[in-house]
UniProtKB/TrEMBL annotation:
GO CC annotation: cytoplasm; plasma membrane
Name of protein: Annexin
Source lineage: Eukaryota, Viridiplantae, Streptophyta, Embryophyta, Tracheophyta
Keyword Repeat among record annotations: yes
GO biological process terms, semicolon-separated: response to cold; response to heat; response to salt stress; response to water deprivation
GO molecular function, one term: calcium-dependent phospholipid binding
Keywords: Annexin, Repeat
Gene3D superfamilies in alphabetical order: Annexin (1.10.220.10)
């Protein structure tokens, strides 16, 4: 699964003209609950784009995320709201507060919450928010390691990040594979 960051409402016109349905309609028709709830929350809500970070909000929301994880309710409304509406700077600080306050990174704490697909989805979402260049470096690496090349995943990762931060992806790929992406 590949999660990309789109400006609010920016995807709608292009998808409607290409596929005659909205992204939300596609998610509803193709994805089962509870993953549907998370994905709809991510693509349907307004995400504040200001770079402001509020420490009290980060600490409070880290506690809410911790409660949901401990209760094994990864699709809790508060989780969907936090991930769907907060700007990426605020979310990164919330993830740092989570680790400081609970002694474990949020991605690790999500393990064993009962639904492997939902765990994987949330880990991917958190990776894309927290360190998108590292996430896409891993996608690139996984697409070329082993038998054959997963050209679809490789192409999608490179095209998705080409204008945003391919230099950071290349640096992360170098770190992960000890080679540059130009030598791959």
């Amino acid at each position: 699964m590949c999660i990309i960051s789109l400006p609010s409402g920016g995807h709608e016109g292009g998808l409607l003209s290409l596929f005659d349905c909205s992204l939300e309609e596609d998610i509803v028709s193709e994805i089962s609950f509870p993953k549907r709830k998370i994905l709809l929350g991510l693509v349907s809500s307004f995400r504040y784009d200001k770079e402001m970070v509020y420490m009290d909000v980060a600490n409070s929301e880290a506690a809410k995320l911790h409660e949901a994880i401990k209760a094994k309710q990864l699709d809790h409304d508060q989780v969907v709201y936090i991930l769907g509406t907060r700007n990426f700077h605020q979310l990164r600080e919330t993830f740092r507060c989570y680790e400081r306050n609970y002694g474990i990174p949020i991605k690790q704490d999500i393990k064993n919450c009962g639904d492997a697909d939902l765990e994987k989805l949330l880990k991917t979402v958190i990776s894309c928010i927290d360190t998108p260049e590292k996430h896409f470096a891993e996608v690139i690496r996984n697409s070329i390691v082993g038998l054959g090349t997963d050209e679809d995943s490789l192409t999608r990762a490179i095209v998705t990040r080409a204008e945003v931060d391919l230099k950071k992806v290349r640096k992360s790929t170098l770190t992960c594979t000890k080679t540059t992406s130009t030598k791959m």
